[in-house]
Structures are given as structure tokens and as C-alpha cells.
């Protein structure tokens, strides 16, 4: 392919976004370019991966507690519905954009197919700083947003869930608002709900558990012993903190942690429970007494066996990929590694377990929740964890074998497995009308 044409295919030709090579959608498009040569006849449909099926922008006006009216921008993108209803979280963050939500929706399509869930891929978001709003204001934003996107979501259409800065309470408000609008209590419209409203046991910890289970498997394959393994984690929210706890219970040492407030180091391993209690009280890891402070960039140079980005996209860029002093990256976040960084890590022989398998534990248990809601029959936590472990390790095994057979990275291997399923469905359904 000539260079100019390659650049266009890499950055797409949609009028409503202008991605860069390092931005989330640019990163996703580069990942698609890398899988296309392995798709054979199905490559004919590859362009469908580069275009979201449907992208909705909504205005979300609310009355603030002081009586003023504030407007927020909300999004819901359904990237693909070829294999089933849309599925993916809703993110509240001041830097959320349409382009970011498009990439996150596309990664959901790939993730759901990589672990073979009967879903397409979707994602939503509202551009706001949740810390600047009261709980009443957050409820109003959530309810208005749900009403605005109400005509494209539903238990058979598209099922939202928690993501960055959203939780079970927000899902309860979404479920209630949707149910009131359609006149029927519809628990299956969202997952990640409180257990008292048809939520699933094990859902809150599921993403962190999936990171641990796939990480342990990858460490075993790469001959990195768990006892004493040094781990650096960026992000100590629901995913990072739960993964940290499971790794430290298995004998690994969490030697470094970074979040929006600061970075910590303790060569003997941080006390994860005490750190979680500190974060609950102070809102950040900063100021935790049993550790030394690290500089923001210094965090990426820490000597460790495993690095876990568990925050936002694009964190491991070209510069940081050269600094990493580790053998394995576990992508607990979505899209944390840029394509240029992927190449540097590969050249440095640092393995990357990609997001679409590493953090799939959350959506797998969301799937269980959706199934339980439909059948009104609820499973025990042990049963949920057993089924989660079985699905995620089975999928990892399939991806690992594909990567080895095709001599490609684990990311491209995961994309091969997923994109074959997505495009096979697309091909069999055909074009209509
Ligand atoms: N937000 C999570 C993710 O990025 C979970 C999505 C879901 O459960 O639908 O995978």
C-alpha cells in the first residue's frame, strides 16, 4: 500500500473526528491495520471495523443545587451490533470526547468477540468532573443522560455498565430511569447494578480478578515466578486495587503505585489493604505513610517483573516504553499502549497482555448478570468465579496459540481471533437492504 493511502486507512476518513496516531481512535485504527493481513477473504469486510455503526451525541442539561442550569455533553456509541446487542460501560471524566468513546466502543466489540460473548460493542460517556458535582447533581445528570440515550438502549439493544468514575449506584439510577420511561421494571437494561436490584455477585471485583487470573497464566507461560514478583500499578481504582489485592495475596509484591495524586514506592511491597483504606479516606494514594514518594516519570522506570497500567488510554507511549524495566505489561486499562510503544516493547522483548483479554473479566460477569436477570435465577459467587476463570483462561489459551501460530504479538493474535468472529457474523448476515 502506498504511504499516503496507508496513512488515510490508519486515520480513517470520517468527517466527525480527527484522530492522531497516538489518540485512542488512531491507536485502534492502527491495531486494525495490523490484523487485516491475517483475515483472508474476510478482509473484504474490514472497513466495517473502522466505522462505528451508530454514534449519538446528546445535550444533558440539569439544574445545579444552587439553581443554575448547567449543560454537559453525553455520548453513546454502538460500534458493532453484528454478534448481538451493544455492550459496554459509561465513563464520567472531564476529558471524555466522542473520539475516545468511539475507540472504547470499538475495543468492546473486539473484547466481547475475543472471549466469545454474544454481544457487539458499545460505550458511553459524559464529559464532566464527578468531583465537582454533588451526589444529587450526579443523579440528575445520570437520569437525564439515560433519558436522552433511552431510545437506543435496552436489554436486547444495548446494555450499559460501569466504567471509569461510574458505579453500582449510577447503574441503579439508570435502571430506574429507563424502567420509569418504558413503564416496566427492566433490570436487564444495565449490568453492574447493586445486588439488591438484580446485580450479580462478584461483579465489582470481576475486572480485577480477570487481570489477576490472566496475569498469573501469562506469568506462568513466561516463567516469571509469582512469589516475590515485583509489580508496579498505575491506577488504584476499582480495577487496580482489586488486582493488587489478589496479586499480593498470591505472594507478589506491589512495589510501586501511581494515581492522579502521586506515586509511591516500597521495595518490600506495599500493604494493599492499608493503602485501599487510605485512598478511601483521602481520595488518592498521595501521603500514604509506609512508602517513599516517586516522581511521575520515575514511576515508569521502577525495576519490576510486571507493570499494570490500570488507568486511562495512551499511558505507555514511545518515551515510557523505552524506560520500562519489566518483563510483562498487563493491560488492565483500555488502550493504555500506543502503537509506537507496542513496537518498542516488542523489540525490547517485553510481553504485552492486551486489554481485550486482560480486562475482559468485568464484561464476562456483566454477561452473567444479564443472563441471570433474564432467567430470574441467581448463581452463587463461587459459581460465578469458576465460570469466569474458565471462560477467560480458555480465551487466553486460544489467543496465545493463535499468536504463536501466526508469529504475531498477543494483541494482533487477540484481534485475529476476535475479528474473524465479528466479520464472519457480518459476512453471514450480509447487507440489507
Ligand atoms: N467498562 C468495562 C470494560 O471496559 C465493563 C463493560 C461491561 O461490563 O459492559 O470492559
Describe what you observe in this structure.
The protein is an alpha/beta fold and 433 residues long. Among the domains are: 53-185, 3-Layer(aba) Sandwich (Rossmann fold); 206-358, NAD(P)-binding Rossmann-like Domain (Rossmann fold). Helix content is 44%, strand content 15%. The strands form 3 sheets. The protein has a 7-stranded mixed sheet, sandwiched between helices. Strands 1-2-5-4 form a 4-stranded mixed sheet. It starts with a helix and ends with a helix. The mean pLDDT is 96. Glutamic acid is lined by residues 87-89, 161, 163, 191, 334, 359, 362-363, 366.
Q: Tell me the CATH architecture of the domain at 206-358.
A: 3-Layer(aba) Sandwich
Low-confidence stretches are none
Adjacency order of strands in the biggest sheet: 10-9-8-7-11-12-13
Q: Roughly how much helix do the residues carry, as a percent range?
A: 40-55%
Termini separation comes to 32 Å
CATH class designation of the domain at 206-358: Alpha Beta
The pLDDT mean sits at: 96
Assembly of the depicted chains: single chain
The CATH superfamily of the domain at 206-358 is known as: NAD(P)-binding Rossmann-like Domain
Please count the helical segments.
14
The Rg value, from CA coordinates, equals: 21 Å
Structural class: alpha/beta
- Please report the total strand number as a whole number: 13
Bound molecules: glutamic acid
Largest sheet: 7 strands, mixed
Identify the overall geometry: globular
The portion of residues forming beta strands comes to 15-25%
Q: Could you state the order of secondary-structure elements as H and E? A: HHEEEEHEHEHHEHEEHEEHEHEHHHH
User: CATH topology of the domain at 206-358, anyone?
Assistant: Rossmann fold
